[in-house]
Amino acid sequence: MHNINKIRMLEFPQLGDERGHLVVLEGQKDIPFDVKRVFYIYGSDHKAIRGQHANRKSEFVLINVAGTSKVKIRDGEGNEAIFCLNRPHTGIYIPEMVWKEMYDFSEDSVLLCLSNEYYDPQEYIRNYQDFEQEIVGNK
Ligand code: TYD
Description:
Structural class: mainly beta
Radius of gyration: 15 Å
CATH superfamily: Jelly Rolls
Distance between the termini: 12 Å
Order of helices and strands: EEEEEEEEEEH
Number of strands: 10
Largest sheet: 5 strands, antiparallel
Shape: globular
Number of helices: 1
CATH architecture: Sandwich
Number of domains: 1
Bound molecules: thymidine-5'-diphosphate
Strand order of the largest sheet: 1-7-4-9-2
């Protein structure tokens, strides 16, 4: 299967009552991997484009726990898809070896990112042409 076809939106149960909402994310259950790393992106300029890289090993789930943003995915073979993250109880699962760009951040955007891998700059591909070549080479 092409990796771009593994992308899917995840909908998490909201355990709400009169006190408000609560969302639980458990590895291998709500999140399709064991979580090794959590980071979050906030205070992003509305014009900023983040990401702009592919990962050889890291998979991600991205959730706008506050505010909104968009994610553009490119597969290096001419296909692309755009997803809107606009609810604290939905996320997007992103597999390894797709190009991703996060943009259109609302002022209050807090983008929570979960990954199956520890941070390793060596597994980041930060040049789009290099990414395209690796995609061709992996076939
Ligand atoms: P960067 O990959 O540019 O963030 P984004 O994907 O949002 O564009 O990372 C910004 C800085 O943070 C960079 O110096 C690397 C560092 N960083 C870590 O040390 N650990 C991490 O897990 C991540 C995602 C980034």
